[in-house]
Automatic annotation (TrEMBL):
Coiled coil: none annotated. Pfam families: DUF6576 (PF20216), Rhomboid (PF01694). Residues 244-264 are annotated as: Disordered. The keyword Zinc-finger does not apply. The lineage of its organism: Bacteria, Pseudomonadati, Bacteroidota, Cytophagia, Cytophagales. Residues 67-210 form the Peptidase S54 rhomboid domain. Belongs to the peptidase S54 family. Keywords: Hydrolase, Membrane, Protease, Transmembrane, Transmembrane helix. GO terms for cellular component: membrane. This is Rhomboid family intramembrane serine protease. Its main location: membrane. SMART domains: DUF1751.
Length: 296
């Protein structure tokens, strides 16, 4: 199967949001690398700068008003190999957890909201903080703000989940998230203060998103609604789902922002399966049900 067929399969499969986010980032990076090389060899490097300005988030308000779409495009744009490498690795590791427990749509809405709040923190910092005013106009690219939102969200959702880190061993993800936040704070007085502040904006959104979801408020609903509207335009009709629930189940779902609680019988069966085969034997749906039950 060709690369193009693989890419097409990625975007035609349902419940594949994490891979789609990864592929979009990699495709944009690959296109920029190829165009940058071609434009350099043809003596048209200035055209590359013009192209990048259409994607990078400007820190000055006039520039942002001229390029409002950059509040999202910057979060899918990378120029340096190690920048995209570490962002995509973190997105994959932590995005898998969010996707398993909250589903594809909430992963996408978390990524988008993290990008938007990161952009907000970035622009406000350069326009309101006197120490950063000399750098006003500096652009930003990279998914770090959105990825930090996913990292902190996963740590807020499952603080004691453990990753086995190379040369370190098992580490609870709440400590990984704390380290990410501390590194961003420490980097504010470095070469990229606005970018580090954008990371903190993403971290704030990640914590707030899960905190509010557990209280029954889904901050990602507007993002999901826009996605469904765009999907309806592309496919010619909205996607409809028919469900049959008791009034009690609907009330519970409403209280928890759509996180309907599974019956106790199902939870008992899942717990029995864990006792027999371990947690890793659970399917994605079983893990989501177990998480929803833990929120009662």
């Amino acid at each position: 199967m060709s690369i193009f067929a693989d890419i097409q399969t990625t975007f035609t499969r349902r419940d594949n949001a994490l891979n789609q986010l990864l592929v979009i980032n990699v495709l944009v990076f690959a296109v920029l690398v190829v165009l940058g090389a071609v434009l350099y060899l043809t003596g048209s490097s200035s055209a590359y700068d013009i192209l990048l300005r259409q994607l990078a988030l400007p820190s000055d308000v006039p520039g942002l008003l001229r390029h409002p779409w950059t509040v999202l495009t910057y979060a899918f744009t990378h120029e340096k190999f190690f920048h995209i490498l570490f962002n995509m690795l973190n997105l994959y590791w932590f995005g898998m957890l969010v996707r398993e427990y909250l589903g594809d749509r909430r992963l996408v809405s978390l990524y988008i909201l993290g990008a938007l709040v990161g952009a907000l923190f970035f622009v406000l910092s350069y326009n309101l903080l006197p120490v950063l005013r000399p750098g006003l106009g500096v652009p930003m690219v990279g998914a770090s703000g959105a990825v930090t939102a996913v990292i902190v969200a996963a740590a807020t959702l499952l603080p004691d989940y453990t990753f086995n880190l190379f040369l370190i061993g098992p580490v609870r993800i709440k400590y990984i998230a704390a380290a990410v936040v501390l590194i961003s704070i420490a980097g504010i007085n470095g070469a990229n203060p606005g970018g580090q502040i954008a990371h903190l904006g993403g971290a704030f959104l990640g914590f707030l998103y899960i905190n509010q979801l557990q209280r029954g408020r889904d901050l990602g609903r507007p993002v999901i609604a826009v996605g469904e509207w765009v999907n309806g335009l592309l496919h010619g009709r909205p996607r409809l789902r028919v469900t049959h629930r008791s009034p009690q189940a609907n009330a519970a779902a409403s209280k928890r922002g759509g996180l309907a609680q599974p019956p106790q019988e199902e939870i008992d069966l899942i717990l029995d399966k864990i006792s027999r085969s371990g947690y890793e034997s659970l399917s994605k749906e079983e893990k989501q049900k177990l998480f929803r039950a833990s929120q009662q």
